[in-house]
Amino acid sequence: MKILSITTATNHLSVALNDGDKIFEKNEEDHRNHSEHLDPLINELLRENNLTLKDIDRFAVAEGPGSYTGLRIGITTAKMFASILNKDLVGVSTLAALANGVSDGVIVSELDARNKNFFAGVYRKVDGKLENLVPDGHYHIDDLINKVKELNLPDQVIFVGSPIDKHHDEIAELLGSDNFVQAEGDNQIHAGEIGKLALNKEAVDPDKMVPKYLRRTQAEIDWHNKTGKAFGSDSDYVEEV
């Protein structure tokens, strides 16, 4: 199965072609212009592998969390491809993709959300298989580390994603241990990992896929205040608007 994967969730733009055990990936550090760079990068990847979009069996995309604008760019592109070509579409957690790029162990996959808040999830990887231990969410550092501590696991904790250097002492105090490290490598989300996780996931209706922000946007808060409607799932506001 040929899977074309995309992530525009952060300032790291990544596209990949997963074809069996082979992964062909292109990455670009782009702080502002994913909308301008995504299509050319996809075209370059396909051209180098003598393929067209019609040759792709499944499209996969990082569905969140991440940058509000970035997520919309990648998801809109993947939805368009899948819908027009009548191909499978799969959404993959940004945090799961981050964790999947780490060697076996207990993994805190996290993206700095400022003011000591993180988009994060806790995973365990054994023999290459990923298990979610703490659901992806928006956590204050105290809450996140306490959830890790409550797992009461003897393993060294591996943080992957945003640098944790400035929080090292606080994490050690909350965890009651300094048995944790930052993952080796670039700590970026790679589309190839999205493709791996997308292989066995159930496809979704392109019309129903929406970003999983894991935190209310200001627009949602304004909508709630204006309409008086209760907050529901991440998709409620997006679908109505």
TrEMBL record:
One of its GO terms (molecular function) is transferase activity. CDD domains: ASKHA_NBD_TsaB. One of its GO terms (cellular component) is cytosol. InterPro entries: ATPase_NBD, Gcp-like_dom, T6A_TsaB. The keyword Protein transport does not apply. Residues 30-223 form the Gcp-like domain. This is tRNA (Adenosine(37)-N6)-threonylcarbamoyltransferase complex dimerization subunit type 1 TsaB.
